[in-house]
Write a structure and sequence with these properties.
heterodimer, A: 374 residues, alpha+beta, Rossmann fold, OB fold (Dihydrolipoamide Acetyltransferase, E2P), 19 strands, globular, B: 225 residues, mainly alpha
């Protein structure tokens, strides 16, 4: 990899709108996938547009290594920043074919040193069958694949993706996600990935910048940031949870199950198409975790993990409490009623059994090997 | 005298073609600016470009006569630079026609550019296309229907002008005598047969052009918006 691929992007920017102010200072590392994460309206897309140079009202400073993109008197126009941008709505040019859209980018990056060729991009994204189609003859997922390919062919130094999967249904998302997961490795490109979907964060990203109301609420590695309890306002109670990292232990083809080792514990989950030994990330929502004092018998729930209570946070004015658990060195969160906490007599340090229904795991899981970690 | 003089017809087409070309060059930046600006001057410029739609041609023609005459600053400069006057000349007719047909070029183009919007231009910029490059490679091709409409309307409208031409150009055969004026003259001299032939040529021509454009428009592959 060339040195340029590791160049950091430092931002310290403000944008003011009548009803909203974005104020962010952060250094984005020049490798891997960074999630810009938060609820709708938190300013994550605006920040991406500021980085690209599309928001002329932005004040502050943006520098890519030593190259100043935005400063006191400096403004580098978007087309000279070498930033690739994948839009939620693809924005393919309707007067060109799929191939025409790819050529458009390829021609304009003819002089840019590249670590990959036109054919590399076409192969990785499987674009050859779409070449002669007009834009209106492409499905949503195909459009997004062409758009990603087009962006890569412009040989950007940094790839910005603005909810590229948001307009797609679950099946199409499943089709595209593996392609996106391959980008940092295949093309040596750092990615800033805007999303409000936790599933995409846990499956694709190496680190999180969580935004709330125009400011940074939390940053850090995916697992450590997700398990922090104060994120529930960003994530929403329904989706709040943690991410567990494990390895595929065995595949049960007959029952369509995968067995995953999480430390010394073993989980059964709906089948993940990976070979034994490969690393996998599983997201567990707090609301899908139940607690028991002893290992129960005669229960349909297959996953019972030995755990220890680290802390209990009752939620004011609701029936619920969040219980943070230690499971073989990794953290798990359980959302249970405050009445249950009292009835079970839960307290810090107490050993419990965490129960997780197998159906609560996301179907999409990607290999985590060979990835640059934050 | 049944056979009409076809000279004015040729002059008219030449005038319309040159005016349309000129307005394509002038109208594009004006329409682009109107479609993208947030300036407060936008309403003023929009009102000015729409004026020829509502002004009686004689009013426009009168002011042009005043501003283009050799006694005026502009007309005087032109006379000393080229040795000929702007009034009662073919060049003067072009200037007058361009102003008279300006809204027919600017308004369809402005609408087309607004329909294209910022989104494809941002996409082009993210693919290393400069603003000029993005205009020619993305905005203009996507606005092709607007260009078609604007070109045809401008051309047809210039062919149909009468009042402005009469005021600025007079009625000089071979230089400023256009077909609409000739038809008027034939009618005035009760030469209905010649008036008929010329009028029929214009009618058939105008209808054919519009029909061609509208059927072409229907089948055009570009869908914007």
């Amino acid at each position: 990899m060339s040195g340029e691929a590791m160049t950091d992007l430092s931002t310290d920017v403000r944008v003011r709108y009548p009803a909203f102010t974005l104020e962010v200072a952060h250094v984005f590392p020049g490798h891997g996938i960074t999630a810009l994460f938060g609820p709708s309206g938190c300013g994550k897309s605006t920040l991406l547009r500021v980085i690209a140079g599309f928001e002329r009202g932005a004040k502050g400073r943006i520098a890519y290594g030593d190259e100043v993109w935005l400063g006191e008197r400096a403004y580098l126009p978007p087309y000279r920043r070498g930033v690739g941008y994948v839009f939620q709505d693809a924005r393919l040019f309707p007067h060109l074919t799929a191939r025409g859209n790819l050529d458009y980018a390829h021609r304009r990056a003819a002089d840019v040193a590249a670590r990959y060729s036109f054919d590399d991009v076409v192969d990785v994204l499987d674009l050859a069958p779409l070449f002669e189609r007009r834009v209106n003859q492409l499905s949503g997922g195909e459009k997004q694949r062409v758009a990603i390919g087009r962006t890569l062919l412009a040989r950007p130094r940094l790839l910005l993706m603005d909810e590229p999967l948001a307009a797609l249904d679950t099946r199409r998302k499943g089709e595209i996600m593996p392609y996106i997961g391959r980008l940092p490795n295949a093309f040596g490109l750092p990615v800033i990935y805007v999303t409000h979907a936790l599933e995409e964060v846990t499956q694709l990203c190496d680190r999180i910048v969580a935004l709330a109301e125009g400011r940074i609420a939390a940053t850090g590695g995916v697992a450590e940031t997700l398990e922090r309890l104060d994120l529930s306002s960003v994530q929403g109670r329904f989706e709040a949870g943690v991410m567990l990292t494990g390895r595929i232990a065995a595949q049960d083809m007959a029952l369509h199950l995968s067995r995953v080792d999480i430390g010394s514990a073993r989980l059964e989950v709906p089948q993940i198409a990976l070979a034994p030994g490969q690393e996998v990330r599983l997201r567990v929502r707090a609301r899908d975790v139940s607690l028991a004092l002893t290992r129960p018998e005669g229960l349909s729930i297959r996953n019972a993990l030995d755990a220890r209570v680290l802390s209990i946070e009752p939620e004011a004015a609701t029936a619920f409490a969040e219980v943070l658990l230690d499971v073989g060195g990794q953290h798990l969160r359980a959302r249970v009623t405050r009445a249950a906490v009292a009835d079970l007599g839960l307290g810090e340090g107490q050993p419990v059994v965490a129960l997780i229904k197998a159906v609560s795991f996301d179907r999409q899981a990607l290999p985590r090997d060979n990835r640059a970690e934050a | 005298m049944d056979v009409p003089d076809l000279g004015p017809l040729w002059l008219t087409f030449r005038l319309a073609a040159i005016t349309t070309l000129l307005l394509l060059l002038v109208g594009t930046p004006v329409a682009w600016w109107l479609a993208h600006t947030r300036s407060r001057l936008k309403s003023v410029v929009e009102a000015v470009t729409a004026l020829p739609l509502v002004l009686p041609p004689t009013v426009l023609g009168f002011y042009l006569l005043v501003f283009l005459s050799p006694e005026s600053v502009l007309g005087g400069l032109w006379l000393s630079a080229t040795g000929s006057t702007l009034t009662f000349s073919f060049t003067g007719l072009i200037v007058a026609s361009a102003l008279y047909s300006l809204p027919f070029m600017v308004q369809p183009l402005q609408g087309a550019f607004e329909a294209v919007g910022h989104a494809p231009l941002e996409a082009a910029a993210s693919l290393r296309a400069s603003p000029r490059d993005a205009f020619f490679s993305v905005a203009a091709p996507m606005a092709v229907r607007g260009y078609l409409t604007a070109t045809v309307l401008t051309f047809a409208h210039t062919i149909g002008e009468f009042g402005v031409v009469l005021m600025v150009g007079g009625n000089i055969p071979g230089r400023t005598k256009v077909v609409s004026i000739q038809i008027y003259e034939e009618v005035e001299t009760i030469n209905y047969a010649a008036a008929h032939s010329l009028a029929a040529i214009l009618l058939v021509f105008s209808f054919s052009v519009l029909l061609a454009v509208y059927s072409l428009n229907r089948r055009f592959p570009v869908h914007v918006g």
